[in-house]
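Fold this: PHP domain-containing protein
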Amino acid sequence: MGVECFKADLHIHTCLSPCGHLEMSPRKIVESALERGLDIIAITDHNTTRNVRPCVEIGDELGLYVVAGCEVNTQEEVHCLCFFPDIETLEAFQEYLDAKIPDIANDPLLFGYQVAVDKDDAIIFEEKRSLFTGICDEIEGLQQQVDSLGGLFVPAHVDRMKNGIFGQLGFIPPGLRYDALEISRRVNYGDFLRSHPALVRERILQSSDAHMLEQIAAVHTLFYMERADWNSFSNAFGKQPHNRGMIKIPIGDG
């Protein structure tokens, strides 16, 4: 099989995330992604994975590859994207999160209701703990947990001062193993590299960080790989020594 081009937006929040609009149901997210020409999305709610399963199931029904993911806020307040091979692995990661999330009550008036829904948009779960705060683990501990589960680890929106790795720490910790870096939709890719020339050889993703439907596919990343599945996806990040995949941000996006 030859290499094909897939359009991906790998940072999308559902109605379970703090400040995620209630319109961000699994079905509406998948339908919006398809309407805008995406081939791959990742569901990356803050500090939780409990709305991923219906997104994956609806994606399978409608022909969209949905990567099981999460955006974790570390103890240092650094946001990191974590991607996993399947729902079973994701559930193991949820056990880790449940043990690391501080027992602080969510304030719906400030951050909205944190609800998970099923494929028909019926509410099936409300997270009472705040998903806004950092977990009780440092970035290295999070990375090691993701790696132990065979996942992919990507520091998020590194161009941002707030919750980006450079803004929070000032540098990438020596020895931190990551598979790519993500930049936000608010920055131009070329401008970012000119301001960070040391990163010119890094794998860079650009994602929407969508909290509303209209933000989905505001930017995207191109994946050149054999098919839309986990093996091809992870190989594009260089997980195999002779991988056939490539990641590229379209020129002019950002």
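The chain has one domain: 4-248. The helical segments are 26-35, 52-62, 87-100, 108-111, 139-148, 165-169, 189-195, 230-236.
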